[in-house]
Amino acid sequence: MRIKLLADIKKGMKRRIVIEKLSRTFSVLGDATRIRIIFVLLREELCVAELSSLLQISHSAISHQLRALKDLDLVKSRKEGKKVYYSLSDRHIENLFNEGLKHVLEKI
Amino acid sequence: MRIKLLADIKKGMKRRIVIEKLSRTFSVLGDATRIRIIFVLLREELCVAELSSLLQISHSAISHQLRALKDLDLVKSRKEGKKVYYSLSDRHIENLFNEGLKHVLEKI
DNA sequence: TTATCATATGAATACATGTTCACATAATAA
DNA sequence: TTATTATGTGAACATGTATTCATATGATAA
Asked: Could you tell me which residues come within 8 angstroms of residue A7 by beta carbon, excluding any fewer than 6 positions away?
């Protein structure tokens, strides 16, 4: 084992909080339903009923998943009367998706 | 509901296989142990024992996680005598990480 | 050959997670 | 007010997953 190299790498390791947050962010993207939600939100902000109709998933399930996405700051919401419109919270998400897609499409 | 918009968005939706593969890829990144493995592999290719020592995780656990990463083509391996050296399989992974980090560090 | 080292793997356990169901809010209409 | 619409939420169930343990494989050395 290359002890010196390992010690050097160890110094450069990220803080635990960063690791945790990053893994939780990827984790929340690691679900087909949430991926589909984000895909359509890339096109347009949508309310719960529209997402439910588009993806053929119950209002409740959509709502639960939107909460998960919101907890990790991946989507934001805007109230308009009874409806709540959801959209992506920033442009990094589009970049993340495009990088992920590049990787996936290369290996198919 | 904006029926016409929804129909239009529906047309642009990705195929199921792409959604599945992408979500599985993000999912495999959604674990602190695997994130740490990838972080150190960004610096240098490492063998199982080195990863185990560096991250203070059993050989077996490391080996299981490396398999998960390899199944999704995130890492590749190279045998040298008794040892097996692992490294990242392509440069997209570094970009993915950097985009993820940007998002995470912005919200901390 | 046998012994040792490095890694891989299957089973089992414990924990995490997605969906459904029932119900609770919140906003508007009647 | 009550009724209706849109969304949110807690509990429960089922499924998925990470780690440990024991064991297996593969490579090298003696």
From this structure: none
